Amino acid sequence: MKSANRYLGRAAAVVLATGAVLLGTTGTASADPIPGCTAGDVTAVMTGVSAGMTTYLFTHPDVNDFLTSLQGLAKSDAKQKTKDYLAANPQVRDELNAIRQPGVDLRNRCNIPLKAEIASVI
């Protein structure tokens, strides 16, 4: 349980940090924000993505265990293991992509550069 709590804590930190970075990015982009691209919109979408991922991981313990096993690995090793895992498990890949899609759509709609996102290895 400690491991799950640590993962959720890190996931929450990533969501909060992403929101903070996106706030800075959207705040400096223009005086008139794109409709649906306010700080509140960004936070709402990222909260939904985080909640969806949390639910998915708790209902798919094998995926949760795999992602938990990446803790402590070098970023490049974790990234490669994740790519290999998702290639071997296309249904999991598609389900995770579906959960993340609202964030991708938001980034594209609001012209938020990928560099502004604090990306995980997924």
Description:
The protein is built from five helices and no strands. By secondary structure, it is mainly alpha-helical. It has one domain: F1FO ATP Synthase, CATH 1.20.20.20. It starts with a helix and ends in a 13-residue tail after the last helix. It comes from Mycolicibacterium sphagni. Keywords: Signal. This is Hemophore-related protein. Residues 35-111 form the Haemophore haem-binding domain.
Name the descriptors.
75% helix, mainly alpha, 122 residues, F1FO ATP Synthase, single chain, 5 helices
Total of DSSP H or I helical runs spanning 4+ residues: 5
Number of strands: 0
- End-to-end separation: 22 Å
Proportion of residues in extended strands:
under 5%
CATH topology description: F1FO ATP Synthase
Shape: elongated
Structure classification: mainly alpha
Q: From the coordinates shown, what is the CATH architecture?
A: Up-down Bundle
CATH class: Mainly Alpha
Helix content: over 70%
Q: What is the mean pLDDT? A: 80
The CATH homologous superfamily: Haemophore, haem-binding domain
Q: What is the count of structural domains?
A: 1
Q: Which residue ranges are poorly predicted, with pLDDT under 50 across at least 5 consecutive positions?
A: none
**Major sheet, described briefly?**
none
What is the secondary structure topology, with strand pairs?
Layout: H1 2-29, H2 39-59, H3 61-69, H4 75-88, H5 90-109
Helix pairs in contact: 1-2, 2-3, 2-5
Summarize this, please?
With 122 residues, the chain is mainly α. The chain has helices at residues 2-29, 39-59, 61-69, 75-88, 90-109.
